[in-house]
Amino acid sequence: MTWRYVPVAIHLEHSSQHALSGVFLLNTSTGQHYVLTVTDLAHPDRYSFKFVSPWCIGPSTITWLPLTLSDSRRLTEGPSGTPRILRDFIEGLQRDGHFKFKPNSSQQLTVLHLRIPETCKTNLAISFTNPDNLLPITFKRASDTPIPSKVALHCCPFSLTSVAIFINHKVYGSAALNLGNAGFLTDVKYLDDVIGGVVFLDSSPSESIGIMCGAVTKMNGDGELSIVASWDAIFSLLNYKDLTFPAQIENVTTSQVLTLDPSRSVVRISVIATDGRFWGSGVCIAPNLIVTNKHVLKSFDSLKDLHIRLPGKPNLSLHLKDVTIHESPMQGFDLCFIRLKNPCIDLQPDESTMLFTKIWKVSDQETKSMIIASAGCWNGSSGGGLFNQNNELVGIMTSNGKLSCGEVMPNFTLAIPINIIEKSRFMLENNLPSVDLKQKVGDLWSLRETHNSVLDSNTPTVHKL
């Protein structure tokens, strides 16, 4: 028996106040499908649901599919067993008086089993029954999960406004404690609308350890740990015969990269402007070219001087008189280029590889427009290189994400992908006309909704009161 999956975002019909992450599961042997999530709704049977997956999102439209509620099981159900262990742990912390539970009381924590209605026969609905459209998943027993383990939460945070941006977003951390095989304590950052997201081992991307069900926070603000319900607990609670622990199947993901040596390519940029001194970073992408964020250089009109410290050349620095500054021809991106009048950087990219990541429609071509990374971004990091473990430049760090309360998340970094940098460089070097992308890119980078939503259904969805 093998299983396939895709992460999904789940909304309530006729409501803009509640959203969930979840996972669509397909049993390839029987054709049976499940949409599983966790919610803190007190009465989930009073609502109608809809969901969306990555391939439901087009250039300007999000097509939603309806869901029916097949089953709901509270973690408080039953006098004993694995789910009860998880519930008792959460409530024990709350009784201590020094902790609170997110998103709501654990008394309402419920596992939902949702399904696409049988009456929904659209091509989009049928596409979910094709295993080739889905990724392999293995359900990992809690007892077989090493502690500590690096993990990745597949989810859709902030989906009430930014589904198209955050669908299948990944948040990384470590599972630090096994809660009696009922779940795990992790340091994965708990964000809005991630409850119900599926959690995988980072070292084995097809092996899943459970579903995100909330977080416990110290009342004095000292810290927060998220809680993952194990598949042991979920399977025990649902008690379905075909939900078992099948064999592992590997899954591989890819990205677009440019190979560089970070120690020889990242530069420090100090700026003297009419309103003060500022600093940031940049990356040498050619012997005579540095790329950075436009905001690092402040307003060009207020720029009085630059001081660029070059890698491997401690006694050499460049000033404004030594360079020319060029805005990106792809207007709207926080990007600019510093061209050296006399090349003096012993650097040459040695490999460029084009692979697959999420695409956005920009101008009349399909172009990836944003990377969301867990790399730390601090003061002075803007314009610096975002590298993977193979020293491959994948983007330029630009800014941090912020929660609705205004909290800055240092490990939630927005970056401009390498393909935007290379495309801008090509347009600049060939004197191609600029493209005005301010509206589209502005909405994207402000994390505002960029798509229209439609419901794909053969039958009307009923809202229960």
UniProtKB/TrEMBL annotation:
GO terms for cellular component: peroxisome. GO terms for biological process: protein processing; regulation of fatty acid beta-oxidation. Keywords: Hydrolase, Protease, Serine protease, Signal. The keyword Signal applies. Its EC number is 3.4.21.-. GO terms for molecular function: serine-type endopeptidase activity. It is an enzyme of class 3 (hydrolase). The keyword Signal applies. InterPro entries: Peptidase_S1_PA, Peptidase_S1_PA_chymotrypsin, Peptidase_S1B, TYSND1/DEG15. It comes from the Eukaryota. Belongs to the peptidase S1B family. This is Serine protease. It comes from Cyberlindnera fabianii.
